[in-house]
Amino acid sequence: MPHCPVRAIRLMVTLSATILAVQAVTAVPALAQSPTGRGIDAHMHILSPENWMDSPVGAQGLIDAAIDVQTIVQLVDDAEIERAVLISGAYFFQDQERARHENEFTSQQVRAYPERFVGLCSVAPLQPWALDELEYCITSLELQGLKLHLVAENMNLTNPEHLGVIAGLLAEAAELKPGLPVLIDFNWTDDAQTFSLIQLAFTNPSVNIVMAHGLGHHYSELASIYLYRELLGGFGENLYIDISSTLFLYPPGSPPFENYIWHLRRFGMDRVLFGSDYPVKSSSEALEALEAMGFTPEEQNQILQDNAMKVYGFQPSVRR
User: Fold this and answer.
1) Tens of pLDDT along 132-171?
2) Sign of the C-alpha dihedral, residues 261, 264, 268, 272?
3) Helix, strand or coil for residue 86?
4) What's the distance, CA 97 to chain centroid?
């Protein structure tokens, strides 16, 4: 991987003709028919009874109990949300046994409601067992994607070593299952890391990368992705965002609101996913925030349902 992400992006523009000749087509799961419910919460965390107290969210008092599938069912039912993406808490733990337990817990919880939920495994990327755990999650646990939270290990995508580790995980994900969704969060601390992630997406077209929390305060880079897509003819077709948390950062009436909405539309409403980031917010709270943002009915349907169905491969029907 190049050591200078910003320079690499400039080179991509300069060498666009060469790049176009070698671009690959990203595989995605088949688009399912619309369910009868109101949509999909594409960002909900779960934690096992054995480990929740030792997780950061438990230690900080954000939760006071484990988060199991019954908790999720109650939350999404209260919001009249039909389905959800459940994220393993394994990335909180650098101990392999604890991480394995969280991934197995996630698989077990999802299998209780296979028509309603899909599960994402997670790993601590810097640990020597990370690649093996990813393979176990996809091939044995049959989890449907990967969550990477880089802040949990103080990773930085401008660090060449860290960048190479994430690139290795993305390559493994593509080999295990082309089109695998990978949800990435590094709290969007600076523009340089965002450029590095754009570079990773370009060099790993066979995984679908979902950028968590709408790039946070760096949402203006969504316009850069649009520009590269225009210049390079199809660049970034494997890039999506979820707008969990940022639904509450930029509500109607806040100074950045109109600018934020413009950037989302520039990026493409067919690439924006709804999420609550539970336990940070509930599905009901997130849905209320979404409905207040003034999206057209077509845009809201894309955000709330169609895009997550495309990325995460939900099955065609739900019976409740």
Assistant:
1) 999 999 999 999 999 999 988 999 999 999 999 999 999 9
2) negative
3) strand
4) 24
Structure tokens belonging to residue 129:
């067992």
- Secondary structure string (H, E, C) spanning 265-289: HHHCHHHEECCCCECCCCHHHHHHH
**What is the per-residue DSSP string for 123-163?**
--TTSTTHHHHHHHHHHTS---EEEEEGGGGT--TTSHHHH
CA angle 20, 173, 1 (to 5 degrees): 55
- Residue 23, in any domain of the structure: no
Considering the entire predicted model, what is its pTM? 0.86
Q: How far is CA 136 from CA 142, 294, 303, in A?
A: 8, 42, 31
Q: Map residue 296 onto helix, strand or coil.
A: coil
Total count of domains within the chain: 1
**CA–CA dist 78, 69 (Å, integer):** 14
Tokens of 240: 């999506």
Cα 106 vs. chain centroid, distance in angstroms?
Answer: 16
Residues 42 and 213 sit within 8 Å (Cβ to Cβ):
no
Residue 259 is part of a domain; what is its CATH number? Answer: 3.20.20.140
Question: Could you tell me if residue 303 is inside a domain?
Answer: yes
Residue 142 CA to residue 118 CA, distance in Å, equals 10
Which helix H or strand E contains 120, and what residues bound it?
Answer: strand 117-122
Q: Is residue 307 part of a domain?
A: yes
d(CA 67, CA 77): 15
